Amino acid sequence: MFKINNFLDNDDVNILDKKGAFTVFEYKRDLSVTKDKAMYEYFASQMNVKLKQVMCELSISPVTIQKGSMQWMVGNVNTTTGIKGVGDFFGKSIRGAVTKEAAIKPEYEGDGVIVLEPTYKHIILIDLATWNNSLVLEDGYFLACDSNLKQKLVARNTLSSATLGNEGFFNLGIEGSGVVALESPVPKEELIEIELDNDQVKIDGNFAIAWSKSLKFTVEKSSKSLIGSAASGEGLVNVYRGSGKILMAPIKSEQTMGE
Question: Which residues contact 24 (CB under 8 A, 6 or more apart)?
Fold first, then answer.
């Protein structure tokens, strides 16, 4: 038995979202700042720059998290690599190499609680039931998910998509029934959701953080002709075709700011 005091019941903690085993919370203020950093921290807080964390209740569901994301745990918690044999090991190693994600993501099960490392990024909880039980992620956004969800490689629809876009040939796909936690450069309130019904959207840059697996994803010239591309001032665009949804940030993420 265990009891956690002065944690989520602390008046400096604000619960932002809860889905399945995951609870997202933030600290309203940094009460441990030093005198020389107080002004900086105050204005950062006023601009919604606040530390956030995720608590995972394993009694609800076992969870898989990004390697190195665990901060502390309490109770009956068992940790595994999630490897189910030699073939599974090689499959996950290949998946990690081509998606820039950790090859082996630790899995936690039991009836205890684990808390993930604090972050200034925004945590987005997505129930895959609202995405037809299938989601594809841009590299670097995965944080955690229910362990029963399947992680698979999703290939670009054309090899030229990766070559032209100077990116990898694969993305990480999540399938099944459960919840996935993403790290986003912007809060949920600013994310744009586009629903396509046998249509298409073209995005100049890696603004999409997730999209339906049912969509065909390619990288193409913004115009069919070189003259047209030059006239529009754009070169290559990410194109999503078909029926499904796209979750898009209105600004570039930190990992693409330098591009």
Answer: 15, 16, 17, 18, 52, 53, 54, 123, 125, 181
Cα separation, 221 vs 187, in Å, equals 30
What tens digit of pLDDT does each residue of 146-203 get? 999 999 888 766 545 444 544 556 889 999 999 999 999 899 999 999 999 999 999 9
196: number of CA atoms within 13 Å, CB side?
A: 21
Instruction: Compute the C-alpha angle 245/170/96, nearest 5°.
Output: 115
Encoded tokens for 257: 């700011």
Alpha-carbon distance values, 173 to 18, 138, 155, 176, 255 (Å)? 22, 9, 9, 10, 20
- The mean pLDDT value for 116-144 works out to 95
Q: Using CA atoms, how far apart are residues 193 and 198, in angstroms rounded to an integer? A: 16
Contact yes or no for 108/56 (Cβ under 8 A): yes
